[in-house]
Amino acid sequence: MSENNSESTVLDESHPAAEEVQSDSEEGAMAQESPKNSAAEIPVTSNGQLEDSHEHSFNRDLKCSLPVGLGLSETKITSHGFDSTKEGVVEAGPFPGKGGRVQQKSGPVVLADEVKNPAMEKLELVRKWSLNTYKCTRQIISEKLGRGSRTVDLDLEAQIDILRDNKKKYENILKLAQTLSTQLFQMVHTQRQLGDAFADLSLKSLELHEEFGYNAETQKLLAKNGEILLGAINFFIASVTTLVNKTIEDTLLTVKQYETARIEYDAYRTDLEELNLGPRDANTLPKIEQSQQLFQMHKEKYDKMRNDVSIKLKFLEENKVKVLHNQLVLFHNAIAAYFSGNQKQLEQTLKEFHIKLKTPGADAPSWLEEQ
User: Fold this and answer.
1) Rounded mean pLDDT of 209-229?
2) What does the mean pLDDT of the chain come to?
3) Is there a contact between 92 and 86 (Cβ–Cβ < 8 Å)?
4) Of the segments 217-221, 270-274, 360-364, which one has the largest average pLDDT value?
5) Which of 12, 229, 337, 357 could connect to 342 by a Cys-Cys bridge, CB 3.0–4.6 Å?
């Protein structure tokens, strides 16, 4: 019995030893299967802090695992205890040759992007343009349907209407004057050819030498006077064309800008009035303030354009009276002198207005051919 008890005791004592051997073999196998990661081999103390004896080994392994271009001197790792709620923070210095600037402060990495995105700027411009176009289109439709109100300057609107009506009338005068010039040119050309034919016959017909000679001189004189009149008419056409197509057209361009500013002003005014009629709370107050700013901006633009139009209309009227006065006097004197046969008066008229004629000749190109 004593022997059996001793054998049982020996067997019981051998079981823990076997378990320890088995545990050691399992730990060895796990060590072989796990990758040799230096971070996994960092021992910690009971409070979660790194042991100083392994700090140098950890930094060396970490330096090998860092990407190329990031030195260990540019990296700082802060570890907290396992009971801390904060995570470790890695601060990296700037990479060699990189563009962005890095803020050298504790906390996450922040790259300062100083260059604005052109695509986003264009998108914002398109958005503003679309919104403005929508508002103006809605205002125009409302006015045409008689639902919307529009700002009207009665005195200025009357002056603009008169200007547009006068421009149409001046264009009609130019059209008729150009027709007269073309017909006169054809007549002068025919008279010159007729005078040459009479002169030729005067040399070949001895019996009718004097008669053909008189007619040749008359036609040549009429052709010469016709060229002088043609020069006066063409000068009149050129001056009135400049007045209509440049001076008046420039003023009407400013008028169009003024009308666009007026539509924008009324569109944003209507928006502001609608917002003021609605409720005022935390959501609507910022919209009202923004609408008030846009309204004020377009009001200033409208006032400026209205003042510009008034000034241009004033100067245009003064310039128009001066130009048309001189051209109408020229046209009248030239026509009267031509049909009365007063050649001296016709030539004097051209001198008064500093009009120079080209030397007449059959081979010389006409003013119509040069244009």
Assistant:
1) 90
2) 74
3) no
4) 217-221
5) 337
User: Helix, strand, or coil here: 317?
Assistant: helix
What distance, in Å, lies between the first and last C-alpha atoms of the chain?
A: 143
Residue labelled with tokens 């072989």? 32
- The DSSP output letter for 280 is -
For the ranges 78-82, 214-218, 331-335, the lowest mean pLDDT is seen at: 78-82
| pTM recorded for the entire structure | 0.58
Rounded average pLDDT over 340-353: 84
- d(CA 346, CA 225) in angstroms, rounded, equals 8
Please tell me the predicted confidence (pLDDT) of residue 115: 56
**pLDDT tens by residue, 233-284:** 999 999 999 999 999 999 999 999 999 999 888 888 888 888 888 888 888 8
Q: Evaluate if residue 111 carries a pLDDT over 50.
A: no
SS3 letters across the chain = CHHHHHHHHHHHHHHHHHHHHHHHHHHHHHHHHCCCCCCCCCCECCCCCECHHHHHHHHHHHHHHCCCCCCHHHEEEECCCCCCCCCCEEEECCCCCCCCEECCCCCCCCEECCCCCHHHHHHHHHHHHHHHHHHHHHHHHHHHCCCCCCCCCHHHHHHHHHHHHHHHHHHHHHHHHHHHHHHHHHHHHHHHHHHHHHHHHHHHCCCCHHHHHHHHHHHHHHHHHHHHHHHHHHHHHHHHHHHHHHHHHHHHHHHHHHHHHHHHHHHHHHHHHHHHHCCCCCCHHHHHHHHHHHHHHHHHHHHHHHHHHHHHHHHHHHHHHHHHHHHHHHHHHHHHHHHCCCHHHHHHHHHHCCCCCCCCCCCCCCHHHHC
Residue type, 65: S
Cα–Cα distance for residue pair 300/5, rounded to 1 Å: 113
Inter-residue contact 227 to 346 (CB < 8 Å)? no
Structure tokens that stand for 179 in this block: 């027709």
Chain position carrying tokens 């051998």: 14
Residue 91: φ, ψ to 5°: -110, 125
What six digits make up the tokens of 187? 């007549």
